[in-house]
Amino acid sequence: MSIRCAIVGATGIAGQQFLSALIQHPFFKVVRLAASSKSAGKNYREAIRQEDGQVSWYVEPDYLNTYADMMVEDAATMPLEGLDLVFSAVESSAARDLETRYAEHLPVISTTSAYRYETDVPIIIPAANGGHAQLIHTQRTARKWRGFVVPGPNCTTTGLAIALAPLHRAFGVDRVIMTSLQAVSGAGRSPGVGSMDIVDNIVPYIPNEEGKVERETQKILGQLAAEAIDPANFPISATCTRVPVLEAHTETVYAALSKPASLAEVREAMTTFGGDINPSTHPSAPKQWITLHDDPFRPQPRVDRDVDGGMTTSVGRLREETVLGIGVKFVLVSHNTKMGAAKGALLVAEDLRLRGFL
Amino acid sequence: MSIRCAIVGATGIAGQQFLSALIQHPFFKVVRLAASSKSAGKNYREAIRQEDGQVSWYVEPDYLNTYADMMVEDAATMPLEGLDLVFSAVESSAARDLETRYAEHLPVISTTSAYRYETDVPIIIPAANGGHAQLIHTQRTARKWRGFVVPGPNCTTTGLAIALAPLHRAFGVDRVIMTSLQAVSGAGRSPGVGSMDIVDNIVPYIPNEEGKVERETQKILGQLAAEAIDPANFPISATCTRVPVLEAHTETVYAALSKPASLAEVREAMTTFGGDINPSTHPSAPKQWITLHDDPFRPQPRVDRDVDGGMTTSVGRLREETVLGIGVKFVLVSHNTKMGAAKGALLVAEDLRLRGFL
Amino acid sequence: MSIRCAIVGATGIAGQQFLSALIQHPFFKVVRLAASSKSAGKNYREAIRQEDGQVSWYVEPDYLNTYADMMVEDAATMPLEGLDLVFSAVESSAARDLETRYAEHLPVISTTSAYRYETDVPIIIPAANGGHAQLIHTQRTARKWRGFVVPGPNCTTTGLAIALAPLHRAFGVDRVIMTSLQAVSGAGRSPGVGSMDIVDNIVPYIPNEEGKVERETQKILGQLAAEAIDPANFPISATCTRVPVLEAHTETVYAALSKPASLAEVREAMTTFGGDINPSTHPSAPKQWITLHDDPFRPQPRVDRDVDGGMTTSVGRLREETVLGIGVKFVLVSHNTKMGAAKGALLVAEDLRLRGFL
Amino acid sequence: MSIRCAIVGATGIAGQQFLSALIQHPFFKVVRLAASSKSAGKNYREAIRQEDGQVSWYVEPDYLNTYADMMVEDAATMPLEGLDLVFSAVESSAARDLETRYAEHLPVISTTSAYRYETDVPIIIPAANGGHAQLIHTQRTARKWRGFVVPGPNCTTTGLAIALAPLHRAFGVDRVIMTSLQAVSGAGRSPGVGSMDIVDNIVPYIPNEEGKVERETQKILGQLAAEAIDPANFPISATCTRVPVLEAHTETVYAALSKPASLAEVREAMTTFGGDINPSTHPSAPKQWITLHDDPFRPQPRVDRDVDGGMTTSVGRLREETVLGIGVKFVLVSHNTKMGAAKGALLVAEDLRLRGFL
After folding, report:
1. Cβ contacts (< 8 Å) between D54 and chain C: which residues?
2. ipTM over the 0.85 cut-off
3. Which residue among D202, D243, D317 sits closest to A204, beta carbon to beta carbon?
4. Number of Cβ within a 10 Å radius of residue C214
5. What is the pLDDT of residue D264?
6. What integer is the mean pLDDT of B76-91?
7. pLDDT grade, residue B279 (50/70/90)?
8. How confident is the model at residue B190 (pLDDT cuts 50, 70, 90)?
9. Is A293 annotated as catalytic?
10. Considering the entire predicted model, what is its pTM?
């Protein structure tokens, strides 16, 4: 029997990636769409029409027909009966109130930052810290909720946390320096990144992004303690930039390790990471969680973003690092609106289902 | 003595091009900035700050300092005393009411379409139809205005009308087919063209653009009759598209002529066009109104847009046309926010000053 | 039993699209790769390595493994035994000699222009003029070849000929004006279009392209006479430009028709076109040869190029045309390296197989 | 009296930037152009024509006329009489032999790497290490040359060395981590970066670039010892990437300092750097060697590259760094073919002239 889902924030880019990922999903079924009051009462096609009349649909063109005639409801007033789960991709300051409203009654899996930094809320990437889901019990008890909230990480955190997870597990990570080259889709659809700002250009700053990356990575790679996560204690110094690429974030990473590791050992740790995730229980999971490239010209965002359904983290240019400390440096590419947002959240849902939370 | 100007719509791209063009202008001086009520009461730098904090300034970086601390007024309530002229570049439906308010008292030279299609309002390109300015007398009398409104053409009309003007004058134009490849700056700053819509893409439709091009070109190349313009009677079939180019519209043009003309005669007509405009009275005018290229790979928007201060119309690929009718076909490039908007409007102001209207 | 194929010009973009399209094809099997002498003797991966070390592979990343270790042979000396068919995608002046060499012994289906303009050589698009294949008999007799040559059209011709075919069949086409906005992949891989020439830019000229479009379209839509094609006699006036789009050509088309047709009749003719092509005999054929869009903002190259495997011709903005003559105008998008090159040639092969030529 | 110069490698992008920078220079005059034997004997306009017929001229369009009819000579056989100086911008492995040939007789100022790593050859940035020019005496004596060779740094080194120079001077630099986002023009004109490789994409590797940056920066910021440069001993860990930007390299820099410095002290060191360079003796020098931005969204390559004639190094996002060590992190933008190549080399020439070497 299908788990009946609402997509809240269905009109944004992450929302559309949810709709794309949930077409013919074996476990989940989209039964309700919601967005801001501006969209409420329109059918979906009209709700995503821009001021100039153009329809903003950024995933597979033919999938739109599946949702075009569904009515979009007001996220603030949408009835919750008939729902088993809410996927939240709200691009606004309203996320906190909305997710609270839903979580009182239903499980909420979210791509937003509204609850990420609460002590009783885990940020989950299944292969890295699926066990943090146990914190949900604490959360429910403390908040007296029938449901719960589990957010995925920020899209820039996702690739970094996945690449560091096997290193931290095997060798310990001591210090990280990271520069991101982020795709325009990460800024959302409305207003998003204006073409005047990014054609033939780079914007060297994304508000709040760098702090999120540090805090979230530490939390994801931390240890579940009694009633909270004890964050990993390695510091991250980051510079986040926006580049003229449509989809997929590229990151250059320098990591000092706690104990020495050969490049062969690092490769082994990376390529085996996530091998315990079973595709039959996790149909959205990549076959290979980390895809390692020997070709130094890879990974490239346009070329590698859709590999493995946009769910693998592509790593290349793996080299020894000595300036930051004994460790490694590398380049990674991660699909920011698939693994880094909606499809990654769906993967969390698949994991929570297996763990009995759904 | 300087003519004291207000720039209304000062926060948009066309508004900024006004600010750029008016730095150290010999005749005009910017004394007031206005925009929507949202911007009113802020200094200019804050008024052009986007939601994410980024300052939207698209012209020479160091020119911003000249205007950064000027207060932006509400266009709807801005006092008119101390002003001799209003340049209007309002990007909204409010243009009509605002321009009416100003024109009751002051000359208004506009980049908007609010008044373009009124029978007593000329659309002026000085080298093509400067004499249409005489219609201002009719306008003032009919409307009982102390001021008047003169708009420049739509940015896509500008290059086409300039390229056709010498042909129409010398040989008569019978029929025109045109396809435009328009730059993103033409869509303005907010929301403008989202990068998700245009990177690696073309949008084959710009609402209302094609009709404007036909109607405006016919009016500009028409004859001044008693109390109106008798439009040129050649039809134009146009397809207007948006392409991933920052600035400058490219147009492919096919024109059937009323009487046969050799390519040499067409070249002569084009290259001598505008030769009677004097740079000392028209400091914003291009040295060459139409720049003809023999190299078939030119004109190119990135390469040719800034030639002659962004004020020339670059024409290339001049060939005989026989399918539409006996005539010529060619490609043109025109800077859409300079000659096609603010700086073109400034040139109209220079022309009206010489003709005694300012 | 599989038809054993060689891909000649396997290192170029069209060659790679052949390799992509032939992965697990039910009828055809790639048994040999050939290219210029520069590549000969290298394995495929090395043969596509650029001077700076980067591997130039522009189709599905994981398909490279299938071909990476195959030896690339010299197209000029490749043995022909063991082959049933040659697909030629040579990007050079050598195409004529090479295709002659192969055609003496084997069927050759080509994406090059080497033989396109010979009187005894048909240019085939199955749904438009599959019957022209009968000219192969004439060709073989005249040239005393055991094989034959059948080229597909130029990539810019393809979409135009497909869109005009149903109009010409149903109403007659009298005159055409076309402007193309062509993708960079059409210029091939080496040297191709340099990024310095096309970022934030348009190049308004592609040598020889416009003449090809006219000549080929007339031939494809012509009538098979005794021993040659009697070309359709409508003239085409074209302007071909290069734009910053990776894949898929966009074309604005104005067509005067011989007899009046309502937009509804034109739509009907377009949407039923190709309906007689059977997917079981033509696995590369699109489900819909022409996909019509009501949304005026479509088609868009990035959005629509991969619909139906890159094999449909997307048409939108269908409107009445009156300036060129009574008829229609529209915008089309066609994938230039799939339907417009390799996969289109494969579709020709499927058609010739059904007709007994393979 | 003018110093008579030859531009060798005149057909490449750096060569063209020399031609642009030397239009009406007060001290230098271009009297001879040279390139590879392939270009020899052609006039300049023909020499820069691509295979498809397009002229490759990437600087001010109207400057081409000044050079179009000059004959291009073969760099290997060009006579040296009548010359006082050679500017070398050869993009090939031939640079070493050619520069040797010239240096036996004439001063050679080069944008190539041919001689950069020789112990008796300084790499000069006037404001940073103009005094290293004294090494020319050693070089001439050792090599028995009447002339000499002085190269400028690699374009990616330039901005980094300039930004670090005042920090190293005032506080000492201990360790540096840098990620570059490099413009396509840095790869030269032929073949350069193909558009298929970079539209909507990033290439995470530029062969040899990272090693050059480390070695050159250490040398430039080193101390002139008896007969060689004693390099600065701080290590640099770099990742160099190519991004879809036409001109100007962006770099994210993390620098640990030897002694603590407040952000105010760092700002003071940066903004006063180069203040002793006199514009009357160095007409190519920027007014401000380092332009500091408080706006965190700056610097941006498209916006800031042409500030101060493309000669300033724009620095922004200045923040404290603690992960690499006590120090600072920031983002810089440097025009790679102006300050980072030809115009930077011209500035070296102006400096050597003042020091009596020319």
Report:
1. 197, 203, 205
2. yes
3. D317
4. 20
5. 98
6. 96
7. very high
8. low
9. no
10. 0.97
Residues C163 and C132: their CA atoms lie apart, in Å, by 18
DSSP string, A281-329: T-TTS-SSSEEE--STT---HHHHTTGGGGTSEEEEEEEEE-SSSSEEE
Question: Which domains are delineated in chain C?
Answer: 3-154+342-354 (3.40.50.720), 155-334 (3.30.360.10)
SS3 per residue for B114-129: CCCCCCCCCCCCHHHH
Report pLDDT digits (tens) over B2-18: 999 999 999 999 999 99
For residue B204, what is the nearest residue in chain A, using CA coordinates?
Answer: A54
Residue A336 is predicted with a pLDDT of 97
| Subunits close to C (at least 3 CB pairs below 8 A) | A, B, D
Least Cα distance to A101 among A73, A129, A124 occurs for A73
D78: left (phi over 0), alpha (psi -120 to 50) or beta: beta
pLDDT tens across A218-271, in order?
999 999 998 999 999 999 999 999 999 999 999 999 999 999 999 999 999 999
pLDDT of res. C190: 66
Phi, psi of C200, rounded to the nearest 5 degrees: 55, 40
Mark yes or no for CB contact B299/C204 under 8 Å: yes
Question: Cβ contact (<8 Å) for C202 and B324?
Answer: no
Residue of chain D whose alpha carbon sits nearest to that of C55? D197
pLDDT of C191 > 80? The answer is no
Q: A341, A169, A325, A177: which is closest to A251 by C-alpha? A: A177
Which of D48, D49, D50, D54 to mutate against chain B (most B CBs within 10 Å)?
D54
Interface test with B, best of A51, A195, A240 (most B CBs within 10 A): A195
DSSP A241: E
Quick: pLDDT tens for C194-250: 999 999 999 999 999 999 999 999 999 999 998 999 999 999 999 999 999 999 999
For residue D146, name the pLDDT band (cuts at 50, 70, 90).
very high
At C43, list the tokens.
């394995």
Contact at CB, A304 and C61, closer than 8 angstroms: yes
Nearest CA in chain C to B297: C205
Contact, A1 vs A358, CB < 8 A? no
- How far is D2 from D31, CA to CA, in rounded Å? 10
Helices and strands (H and E) in chain D: how many: 12, 14
pLDDT tens for C281-327 read 999 999 999 999 999 999 999 999 999 999 999 999 999 999 999 99
Q: Which chains have 3+ CB pairs within 8 A of D?
A: A, B, C
Residues on chain C bordering chain D, Cβ-to-Cβ distance under 8 angstroms: 13, 50-54, 56, 58, 184-185, 187, 189-200, 203, 205, 207, 244-246
Return phi, psi of residue A347, to 5°: -65, -35
Residues on C contacting B at a C-beta cutoff of 8 Å: 175-177, 179, 181, 199-205, 235-237, 239, 241, 243-246, 250, 252, 254, 296-303, 316-317, 321-324, 329, 331
Residue pair D123/D222 in contact by the 8 Å Cβ criterion: no
**Which residue from D minimizes the CA distance to A314?**
D204
Closest C-alpha among B133, B186, B132, B128 to residue B162: B128
Of B127-141, C158-172, C177-191, the poorest mean pLDDT is in C177-191
